[in-house]
TrEMBL record:
Organism this protein belongs to: Roseobacter fucihabitans
Enzyme Commission (EC) number: 1.1.1.203
Keyword field: NAD, Oxidoreductase
UniProt-recorded name of the protein: Uronate dehydrogenase
Gene symbol of the encoding locus: udh
Domain NAD-dependent epimerase/dehydratase as annotated: residue spans: 4-161
Length: 277
């Protein structure tokens, strides 16, 4: 099996490279940086821009599946996201279709449904309610994946990741996705025999998880980690909740509050603990 990983230089990509290399005959990792450090056995790095079909199409030749994690991972003006997050997704699906790729596993996001309330308890079939242009790109790509399945029989699994980062705020007690659970989720999205078009939430087994993954249970994803052990410490340090603040009551957190085009990540204390090689 030959796999392609986009966004290999990113924080989440850094944790996926080793397990993906171990489960296939050849892993092609790609990003726009010059290099990604020491390569794992069976891994090759190819520098390519997602927004340039001429660069990305050759990377997908001969691939069985693509794990598509490449994108700008924050809210930006639409024009800045258009290339990597919108056109880049189209290029992956269209180039993948022409190359005979069986399946694409996509890093979608809770921000595709970020304006739903935490108390709604939504499932994987909730309607799109993007909180930003960034979330809109996730909606676009989910719909793109559905269309390519309906019209061309190309499978895809869209992982609506909540918060794959260290737990250092009250919201993360429910939204945390550990790196181990991320790896399990991606692995299940790859090794499940048939997926059609599937949406699944990327969240650990948190007591306070605000979403329901029941309709994606056929993937066999059974998260093992739970952020509750950090609850006492995190809540003791957390400020009082303002129940009129969209950033507090909506699934998108700060992304639900910021103006369109303004950074949501600037309001989150995300620690860059990427895995070094």
């Amino acid at each position: 099996m030959k796999l392609v990983l986009t966004g290999a230089a990113g924080r989440l990509g850094s944790y996926l490279r080793e397990p993906l290399a171990a489960m296939c005959d050849a892993l092609i990792s790609t990003d726009i940086v010059k290099d990604i450090g020491t390569l794992y056995p069976g891994e090759t790095y190819i520098r390519a821009d997602l927004a340039d079909m001429a660069q990305i199409a050759p990377v997908l030749e001969g691939a069985d599946m693509v794990i598509h994690f490449g994108a700008i991972v924050d809210e930006k003006p639409f024009e800045e996201l258009l290339g990597p997050n919108f056109v880049g997704s189209y290029n992956i699906w269209e180039a993948g279709y022409k190359a005979g790729v069986k399946r694409i596993v996509y890093a979608s996001s809770i921000h595709a449904v970020g304006m739903h309330l935490k108390t709604d308890g939504i499932g994987v079939d909730a309607e799109h309610r993007p909180d930003t242009f960034y979330g809109l790109a996730k909606c676009f790509t989910e719909d793109l994946g559905r269309m390519y399945w309906d019209k061309r029989g190309m499978e895809s699994v869209h992982l609506r990741i909540l918060s794959c980062a260290q737990v250092n705020n009250a919201r993360a007690l429910g939204t945390w996705l550990s790196y181990d659970d991320l790896i399990q989720l991606v692995t299940r999205a790859i090794d499940t025999p048939s997926v059609g078009f599937t949406i699944a939430y990327g969240v650990s087994n948190n007591d306070r998880a605000p979403v329901n993954n029941a309709k994606a249970s056929f993937l066999g994803y059974r998260p093992k980690d739970n952020a509750e052990y950090l609850a006492a410490q995190v809540l003791a340090e957390a400020p009082p909740v303002d129940v009129t603040d969209p950033g507090e009551i909506c699934l998108g957190g700060p992304f639900a509050k910021v103006d369109l085009g303004q950074s949501g990540m600037a309001h989150l204390n995300v620690i860059d603990d990427r895995k070094e090689t």
